[in-house]
Amino acid sequence: MPVQALQCKECRETYPLEARYVCERCFGPLEVGYDLSGLDAAEVRRRIQAGPRTIWRYADFLPFAGDPVAGLPVGLTPLQRAPRLAETLGLREVYVKNDTANPTHSFKDRVVAVAVAKAQELGFHVVACPSTGNLANAVAAHSAAAGLDSYVFIPADLEEQKVLATGVYGTNLVAVRGTYDDVNRLCTELSGDRDWAFVNVNVRPYYAEGSKTLAYEICEQLGFEVPDRIVAPVASGSLFTKIARGIEEWTEVGLVSGGLPVMNGSQAEGCSPVAQAYEAGRDVCRPVRPDTIAKSLAIGNPADGPYALDVARRTGGSIEAVSDDEVRAGIRLLARTTGIFTETAGGVTTAVLAKLAEQGAIADDERVVLVITGDGLKTLDAVRGTFERHEIDASVEDFERVVACQPVAAV
Amino acid sequence: MAVTVKIPTQLRNVTGGDTETAVDGATTVGDVLDGLYDRYDGLRERIAEDGDLRRFVNVYVGGEDIRFLDGLDTTVEDGDEVTILPAVAGG
Q: Which of A43, A100, A224, A311 has its CA at a distance of 20 to 30 angstroms from the CA of residue B46?
């Protein structure tokens, strides 16, 4: 397998493949390094196409020396052509990468599948995380499937659906009075002195690799081609950054060509530290206190903010922010034109696509992929009261009186 | 009384294994850090660069990120707890 070592993204210092996430020399983040020079594109492509119908078909690009312990089946979610959405926005070719079709209904299954497999390889018996909700669902479920104990830390004001869809798996659920950033700080402190695998803290370099599979799938599903533009959400910036990393790796191996797509990141105005830094031309993000309905993106202190900014800038993209009303409208637009019900994060992403289309920023001949990362059933409050319901007696007369439908001619 | 400083795992090889220490006579976070730099050889280079904190280092006073306060000029009082943590977690 091509995986080699952990490497600091800042000073390039290398470390062995263990539970470690911070460079001892400069405090920079560590990421997994590979030597892809021995990979033959045709052979890799055959291995992928003959592989399991999960993210493990991309094992050449994942951080395991041997066969990982496969748990819940994750990935190969639909890439759905969205002609009605495209038409509504005046675009030609739009696809929705529908990551709601994962075991716990969000893209977090990808990163957690990798993190939990790695945690087992490293000999951990307890898995944990700070979470805005989707990760909580995934960590609780994947730990249950693997028979590992888990501790899930969430902000106490999280949406009820996400709390219920976590607790049901039998995890130790800890609701912290504070924001996600408070929860994250607490878990960073706890991880120092506990022999637990905090998926997005001490094993984060491996966890983050799971997000690359989203890029691999998009390219594979387009017939090993890179789209012209990808619109994706930005919270910590890790997913956004790793989508680009995945495409760079496949370009290096020769599986795809043409370079990176234009990358547009999406944030909610109520928590937009990366969009603000983009707008101001800064390469560092100033932390903010989140106030938005898009709680799964409500990270005020984004760890990968500087790298997300770099990806947006060098691909000719941007990091955009939209209001909560635009988020609600985005959820409705996607549902009504594609049949996909997304949570608030997908409302953010759809709203950013709509905004870019309205600005004329997207050329007529572009092939655009919209990344939908989570299911609408997780954030039901966002659509409550946004449509009319007709309540009637169980009679034809009442139906015709109340609903006042157009008479339909018999065929 | 003094200001208590909590030291993350990643810095304990320059603090001789100390997980916590106390700094006397400091009025700002900057003073507290200077006190630590005097005490522990090699600490400054690890977390600071050009007179400021490195961008992947977070410092908190009583759980509050100093970037929401006055940065290194944030005032501290006896009994306050200062926490240094890596900024690369989460999400």
A: A311
Q: Residue A148: which domain range? A: 108-210
Q: For chain A, what percent of residues have pLDDT higher than 90?
A: 94
ipTM: 0.94
Query: What number of CA atoms fall less than 13 Å from residue A19's CA on the CB side?
Result: 25
Digit-coded pLDDT (tens) for A228-286: 999 999 999 999 999 999 999 999 999 999 999 999 999 999 999 999 999 999 999 99
In a domain, A2, yes or no: no
Using a CB–CB cutoff of 8 Å, tell me whether A7 touches chain B.
no
Give tens-digit pLDDT for A306-320: 999 999 999 999 999
The answer to whether residues A134 and A247 belong to one domain is: no
Q: Does A301 touch chain B (CB under 8 A)?
A: yes
Cα separations in angstroms, A385 against A276, A350, A388, B31 = 31, 20, 8, 54
A165 and A148 fall within a common domain: yes
Tokens of A64: 């395991």
| Count of structural domains, chain A | 2
Q: Tell me whether residue B17 is in a domain.
A: yes
Residues whose CB is less than 8 angstroms from the CB of residue B89 and which lie 6 or more positions away in sequence, other chains included: A21, A130, A184, A187, A188, A191, A198, A200, A201, A204, A303
In a domain, B56, yes or no: yes
Tokens 């009025």, residue located: B27
Whether A262 and A366 share a structural domain? yes
- Tell if the CB–CB gap between B90 and A184 is shorter than 8 Å: yes
Interface check B7 vs A, CB under 8 A? no
Q: Is A8 within the bounds of a domain?
A: no
The answer to the question of residue A224 being in a domain is yes
Q: Do A304 and B60 touch (CB under 8 A)?
A: no
Q: Say whether both A309 and A166 belong to one domain.
A: no
Of the candidates A201, A264, A318, A119, the one whose C-alpha atom is nearest the C-alpha of residue B91 is: A201
Asked if residue A206 and residue A236 are part of one domain, the reply reads no
Residue A152, C-beta contacts closer than 8 angstroms, at least 6 positions apart:
A128, A129, A131, A136, A139, A140, A166, A171, A172, A173, A174
- Residue A35 is predicted with a pLDDT of 97
Confidence of residue B72 (pLDDT cuts 50, 70, 90): very high
Q: Which residues of A249-272 are buried (b: 16+ CB within 10 A; e: fewer)?
A: bbbebebbeeebbbbbbbbbbbbb
8 Å CB contact between A140 and A152: yes
Decide which of A183, A210, A237 is a domain's last residue: A210
The domain that holds B53 is classified in CATH as 3.10.20.30
Nearest residue to A312 via CA among A342, A339, A285:
A285
* Per-residue model confidence as pLDDT tens digits over B22-49: 999 999 999 999 999 999 999 999 999 9
Q: Which residues pair with A173 in a beta bridge?
A: A152
Sort out which chain A residues have CB atoms less than 8 A from B20's CB and list them. none
Full-model pTM: 0.95
